[in-house]
Amino acid sequence: MKKIDRRKAIKNLGLGLGCIPLISNSLTGSDILYDGSKTITAGKFDNPNIDKPITVITLGAGSRGNTYGNYGIKFPNQLDIIGVAEPIAIRNERYSKKHNIPDKNRFKTWEHVFEQPKFADAVIISTPDDLHYAPCMKALEMGYDILLEKPIAPSENECRDILNLAKKTGRIVAVCHVLRYAPYFIKLKQMIDSGAIGELISIQHMEPIEHIHMSHSYVRGNWHNSKETTPIILAKSCHDLDILRWLIGKPCKSISAYGSLKWFKASNAPEGSTNRCTDGCAVELSCPYSALKIYHRERQRTYVFDFPEDKSTHSDFIIQQLKTTNYGRCVYKMENDQPDHYITSMEFEDDVTANFSMEAFTSYHGRRTRIMGSMGDIVGDMDQFIHTDFLTKKTTKWNINIEDVGDYKNSGHGGGDWALVFDWIQAVKQQDANLLTSTIDASVESHIMGFMAEKSRKTKQIVSIDLK
Q: Which residue numbers delimit the Gfo/Idh/MocA-like oxidoreductase C-terminal domain (predicted)?
């Protein structure tokens, strides 16, 4: 096997210091075998150069807060969670117990954290979308470095405020654009920049949300109302706008978008349906979005319920949750307004084009990518991609292996979650934002693309992008 040094490869491909990640052994591959296959294997996150962990306070102990915090459980020599702010008591208790957080560093809300003098190196902000801006601004004012869950903030002005204050204070702000750290997208970036497909012409990219995920998160769940959180193009797909900007390597000049809420609305409610799936709905057994089916019978996505310790009570607990929370409501009778299909077309500098499609109604998930160049193309789905050379007509299949190798198996988003945390820790330790692949500058740029996409969708106009 021939190793691909991730840091050297990306540096040599001319991405600049702002895009040099630090997992130097994270990708390996064999020599190219035409009409054959290769494997990209994710490596480990061990770093013997770290002599002392960074200390961190987590604001928001939900799913994402636990994902990033769990890195400290696996690698306590690198990351030490010493504080938490979480208003849901059972989450606060469990997070504190997991990380051995003393009572004095347990807080109900993020505001309480900043009433104390600075007592850690950094904060992880994994609060709800509409609670990113205020704690981020306060953390910057107090001198904390930050790992900020996407989206940065609900408005363009707030995003720019955070960028400006980060520059003024000189603090590290890493936005969780985790796809940049996934081996699949890293290798695609290498292939494009190495000239393997000639000159880049166009990209088609799709995010299949998967129908149950859509109903769970964006119809019943926390992100069902764009006015209370953020538009779905940012809440769900700012990852994808960011990865397109990164792969292409040039600014986006203009954007146009189309999409609507077509299916999950009252006019499509089946005859005999009730306000809740537990209310004796006549069509419950024939509905793919039945809350009883999803959460009770199949036990999908039940992590949102904060189960009691006694497992024998879990079945009754789920039913009670379905009777009292939005997760038990009919998908056709919610106050949701998020589009369930969304298509965005973009023009980048040097006449490179990209199409992005966010689709709710799929039986599968995982991004799909088609990259077209003057001398070859690439077709991939995050598990593998196939490169075809136009001149030789030979193909190379690359397999992505993250499940059984190294520590990526504990990380989501194709291995990107923990790879981001790894790089963020290095940046904080060395106080050098250039050690991040995804800097706050780049993150704000792709967010502006999202805001302009939403403007285009609503106004039915092509919208120019102004990054100044």
A: 189-463
Residue 169 near residue 359, CB atoms below 8 Å:
no
* pLDDT tens by residue, 303-361: 899 898 888 999 999 999 999 999 999 999 999 999 999 999 999 999 999 999 999 99
Can you state the angle between helices 440-459 and 238-248, rounded to 10 degrees?
120
Please tell me whether the overall predicted TM-score, pTM, comes out greater than 0.70 for this model: yes
Q: Contact 12/24 with Cβ under 8 angstroms? A: no
Q: Which of the four pLDDT bands, split at 50, 70 and 90, describes residue 468?
A: confident
Distance CA 315, CA 305 (A): 11
Take residue 392 and report the two structure tokens written for it: 């030789």
Would you state the structure tokens that stand for residue 431, as one six-digit string?
């106080």
User: What would the 3-class secondary structure string for 332-370 be?
Assistant: CCCCCCCCCEEEEEEEEHHHCEEEEEEECCCCCCCCEEE
DSSP codes of every residue in 150-204 = SSS-SSHHHHHHHHHHHHHHT--EEE--GGGGSHHHHHHHHHHHHTTTSSEEEEE
Closest C-alpha among 166, 209, 146, 162 to residue 356? 209
Tally of helices (H runs) and strands (E runs) in the chain: 14, 18
The DSSP bridge partners found for residue 22 are none
Place of tokens 């081996």: 183
* DSSP label of 107: E
Domain boundaries, the chain: 266-328
